[in-house]
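Tutorial, part two.
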Amino acid sequence: MNNDRLCGIYAILDEQRYHTLFVPRFDVANAFDNPNFAISGFSLVVDASTLKDGEHLLEVRTISHDCKTVYRTAGFVVRK
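Running the prediction step on this input gives:
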């Protein structure tokens, strides 16, 4: 997202949207010498006991102030 500031981060797990909380990441801001990157961290809480055995898909989306959206998707498997 270059030097854009984030205005939102949310996650989609198995087609259900979850809100996230921003977590300061001053280490990232310092590493990239960009104070805007301090708001690049987030926290997501999901009750893992509600996940059924099998494959799941997690997508994390970031939205910048100029409405650019970037997302990454990862799959994982639950076995209880």
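Residues 6-78 form one domain. In part three we will examine how such features are distributed along the chain.
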